[in-house]
Amino acid sequence: MAGPVQSIERAAAILRLLAGGPRRLGLGEVAASLGLAKGTAHGILRTLQHVDFVEQDAATGKYQLGAALLHLGTSYLDVNELRSRSINWADALAGRSGEAVRLGTPLEGRVLIIHHVFRPDDTLQTLDVGSLLPLHASSLGKVLLAFGTATVESALEVGLEGYTRHTLVVREDLNPALAEIREQGWAAEVQEMSMGDAGIAAPIRGHGGLVVGAIGVSGPVERICDSKGRPQPALITLLREAARAISRNLGAARW
Known about the structure:
This protein has ten helices and eight strands. The chain has helices at residues 6-19, 27-34, 38-50, 67-73, 79-97, 139-146, 152-158, 171-184, 221-224, 233-249; strands spanning 54-56, 63-65, 100-107, 110-117, 132-134, 187-190, 197-205, 211-220. Helix 5 packs antiparallel against helix 10 and helix 6 (139-146) crosses helix 8.
């Protein structure tokens, strides 16, 4: 029987290394961590970059996992498992925030709602489980786009429909917004899908830190945002705590 292929083992080691931490790594850091010559590490990184499994930051020259690999990472996790492992935390988030909570995963260029907890009051509400939301105009969708779980190309194929005057309908406007979401770790929609409504969402991660879904809080804009239209910091804190708890339940390292 043939033995293992060394180049593939080394490529896998590099991918695990990049997945194991929250920051980008330079060529020297990758080589030193794995005991590889810089030339060897550089050749593997260039190959992984060619197939979009690795991305290189243009400003720093450092490397991170690429969108193609992050997108593939969702396939191992069954939607029912994501839902079952998230229910308790989603219910608790609705109770603590006083707002509706939804879980989403990508499906055919949109966001599929796989769990919905009603706002804990007596108002009339409609169950959204099974409904599809636009990637570009929902906080859940923008999280999935920002972290590569859904691709911008899939959103473009469906079309960047303008639901309100606040909706991002031009790719050149969407790209910097997604970069900001990656930097801050959460996304917002403020009257982008419907006037008077707002929402915030955060990524749910699985093994290796791969983003496998998103959890969000939504409600009237005056409840989600302050007087200047900015999401309430207290809600963001509650949301991110819930996202981290679900992620740990799915096997993600602390982050």
